[in-house]
Amino acid sequence: MISPLYVMLFGLIAFGLLPAMAEKWESFEPSWAIKQGGEIYEFMPFKQSELMPEICIMKPAPNLIDYYDYQDSIWYGIAVWEEGLNEMSEMFQPDKGYSWQLKILEFAYEEHVTKEVSDYIQCNIFIVFEPFDKEKENTLGITAFDYANSRHKYAVITIFATQPAPAVLYLDDDPETWDTQVDILPITPNTMRQIIGHEMGHGLGLGHYYAGMNNPSRSIMEFSMSIWSEDNYLPPQYLDYYALITKYGTDGFKVWEYPVQQQWFIPPHPELHT
Ligand SMILES: [Zn+2]
Question: How many domains are there within the chain?
């Protein structure tokens, strides 16, 4: 049984509307490595295909959360990828040039609530906000993809912005009985930042990191966190930037190769980059 304080995290990747290729991809099971306590880092079967991917924040319903309490955290969760990748490319090829720019757009709730994905053809990654969903009990965020044949290829990140609070036990007058009351509360800005950072990793083409016998804090793509802890923030790590550079090359988003052949890699030994 999972403690309410540490309800597990990130939903996996929902492959929404897929290309045949992704079906093949799903059959991949890194279990051989995991069973042996091995460390493995998965990739998603696509790359962002534009020089400057556009990240579209579809602002939440006003009665869900107050967007402006979270705006800095959300922007940070996105921008931290761009900054870290630029820094790493600077290290690898200071003279050759590179571009890891992400463009962030925001749409007011009133502007998007009745619209379809096809109304926002410029968006490569959508970020949308939903309330806690009982059906997806342990999920804080989900990233789904449509990389089917249409020209508009995109990812949709859904953030479940309210979650059950840590359970509080109330003793009745009758000591024989007690009730559990669980409130559904907005997640903290800190948790928001963490979820956005993780789901953005998926949106850019990363799968999950399995630590095996190694330290789970080597990667933001480890798939669990504690919701209500205030010190739970782990930004993307060296290994996460390394993974994206393995995928796109050191020059940034401008290289487009499809399909992506590599499904996973074994992370280099930690001592190589600490
Ligand atoms: Zn995930």
Answer: 1
Q: How far is the CA of 220 from the centre of ligand 1 (A)?
A: 9
Ligand 1 geometric centre to CA of 162 (Å): 18
Cβ < 5 A residues, ion ligand 1: 10, 223
Coil vs helix vs strand at 21: helix
In percent, the amount of the chain with pLDDT more than 70 equals 75
Distance CA 102, CA 86 (A): 11
Question: What is the 266 CA–ligand 1 centroid distance (Å)?
Answer: 18
Residue 3 domain-assigned (yes or no): no
Q: Rounded to an integer, what distance in angstroms lies between the CA atom of residue 54 and that of residue 52?
A: 6
User: Is residue 5 domain-resident?
Assistant: no
Span from the CA of 198 to the centroid of ligand 1 (angstroms): 6
Residue range(s) defining the domain that contains residue 147 = 10-273
pTM of the model: 0.83
